[in-house]
Design a protein that fits this description.
The chain has a domain of 102 residues. Helices cover 41% and strands 2% of the residues. The chain contains eight helices and two strands. A two-stranded antiparallel sheet has the order 1-2. The termini are far apart. The relative contact order is 0.10.
Length: 217
């Protein structure tokens, strides 16, 4: 008497609807106008810049420090200036972008040095800024009087006002005797203990003054 062994087939190994003769050549999408579109976009940018008049092709960017300890030693170009920086330079936030100054509403000034640096950049930009009136002969508030279009224009604001170096390297020198005798570990431990015990020592001094006043009475 014989027995029949039924072997089960794994469903995941079966290729369902295995149509291997698809006419993919008629379904693929191709485009060959990339070089022409690139040229068209370039011509459109040139025409737009010509209609805009004499203005820099790039906006003025602030000098900001990147996040994290690894990169915050250098300066890079940021997204836009803060309202505090614009206020320090005497520029209204609503008219800033119209004269080539972007505004970043999210960034905050964390240091006086960074605020001062960007205010100086804005003041230098404002000193060289020439605003032509919309209509010839009708000078309004904010326009430059006696503006002449024959004045050579700056093509790039970033090239005219580059981002300064984040830090200056210290020149090598010999170590002094005071620096050799200085113990950095002990100084840090003492500063830490002073900060931790400031409240305890203040309370001790208060009690001491109260006892002296009580003895005088």
């Amino acid at each position: 008497m014989g027995f029949r062994h039924n072997k089960r087939v794994d469903p995941s190994s079966v290729l369902h609807r295995n149509h291997f003769r698809k006419d993919w050549q008629s379904r693929v999408k191709t485009w060959f106008d990339q070089p022409g579109k690139k040229h068209s976009r370039r011509v459109a940018r040139q025409e737009k810049a010509a209609k805009a008049g004499l203005r820099p092709t790039e906006l003025l960017r602030p000098a900001v420090r990147p996040p994290t300890i690894r990169y915050n030693r250098k300066l890079r170009a940021g997204r836009g200036f803060t309202k505090a920086e614009l206020k320090g330079a005497g520029i209204r936030a609503k008219e800033a972008l119209s004269i080539g100054i972007p505004v970043d509403h999210r960034r905050r000034n964390r240091s006086e040095e960074g605020l001062k640096l960007n205010v100086e950049r804005l003041e230098a930009y404002k000193a060289r800024l020439v605003v032509f009136p919309k209509k010839a002969g009708k000078v309004k508030k904010g326009d430059t009087e006696g503006a002449d279009k024959s004045t050579p224009a700056v093509k790039s604001a970033q090239a005219a006002f580059p981002i300064p170096a984040g830090m200056t390297a210290e020149q090598p020198r010999s170590i002094t005797s005071e620096e050799k005798e200085f113990n950095a570990y002990a100084a840090l431990r003492k500063a830490r203990s002073d900060a931790r015990l400031v409240g305890v020592r203040a309370e001790r001094e208060r009690k001491k003054r109260e006892e002296e006043e009580a003895k005088r009475k």
